[in-house]
Design a protein that fits this description.
The structure is a single chain. By secondary structure, the chain is of the alpha+beta class. The strands form two sheets. The protein has a five-stranded mixed sheet. Strands 1-2 form a two-stranded antiparallel ribbon. The radius of gyration is 14 Å and the shape is globular. The chain has one domain. It starts with a strand and ends with a strand. It contains five helices and seven strands.
């Protein structure tokens, strides 16, 4: 992946597939744990409008993370879910955002997840 603007770079199919596969893994695990999270952002577009998903790649729009929206009341469950999936929380983000956002990182696969609460 090369480029100068965040999210606007060439990204090969295998890199895009990595994000899409991880998204499905997180969604499946959240359903099994009865946690309500909703994908947002460029991956949401890909999932909900697959017929037009090629447009993002054609415009040089790369996946840089996975974004979710969730309820505050499930923060404890989300933290547990993400830890169980091998993610580490960047607790400073949660503190600085006053509880409105969490970032979970999984450096071994080069993915981080943003969760925006309510």
């Amino acid at each position: 992946m090369t480029g100068s603007s965040i999210g606007m770079v060439d990204q090969d199919r295998s890199e895009r597939q990595k994000f899409e596969t991880e998204l499905k893994r997180v969604i499946t695990a959240s359903k099994e744990a009865d946690i309500l999270i909703r994908v947002i952002g460029s991956l949401a577009f890909q999932i909900h409008c697959p017929m037009y998903g090629y447009l993002q790649a054609a415009m040089g729009r790369a996946y840089t993370d996975i974004d979710f929206a969730a309820y505050n009341r499930q923060i404890k469950e989300i933290r547990s879910l993400m830890a169980g999936l091998g993610y580490r929380e960047n607790s400073e983000v949660y503190i600085v955002s006053q509880g409105e956002r969490s970032i979970f990182e999984k450096p071994d696969i080069g993915i981080h997840i943003d969760v925006f609460y309510e």
